[in-house]
Amino acid sequence: MPRTPSEYAVYLFLEGGHTEEVRFPNVQDFQKWYSGELVPKCTSEDFINVPIKTIQGEYMVVRPSRISAIRVEPIFSSSVERFT
To answer: Which of 1, 34, 56, 71 is the most buried (most CB within 10 A)?
Structure first.
């Protein structure tokens, strides 16, 4: 039986070498944000909101044109890294 991830860590690699991590509860939420917010404005210099669902009261905005790469990593609740 295949394991199901409990959430997804999305790493945004920004120009200048900075990396930001945001979490999505499922891959569909990430795909909805990616295709609805990021892709249509990929060359824009205007800020877009990056959802941070796991942290109350915090938000992040980013210029889509400054994102160099994105890495999506499934996180399993049984992962050893989550308990260290």
So the answer is: 34
Entry pTM? 0.82
Token pair, residue 38, equals: 């990021």
Whether the Cβ atoms of residue 77 and residue 51 lie closer than 8 Å to each other: no
**pLDDT tens digits, residue range 3-16?**
888 899 999 999 99
In 1-84 the beta strands, taken as DSSP E runs, fall at: 7-14, 19-24, 48-50, 60-62, 67-75
Q: Which pLDDT does position 80 carry in this prediction?
A: 55
CA triplet 52, 58, 59: central angle to 5 degrees? 55
Query: CA-CA distances (angstroms) from residue 29 to 37, 39, 44, 53?
Result: 12, 14, 22, 11
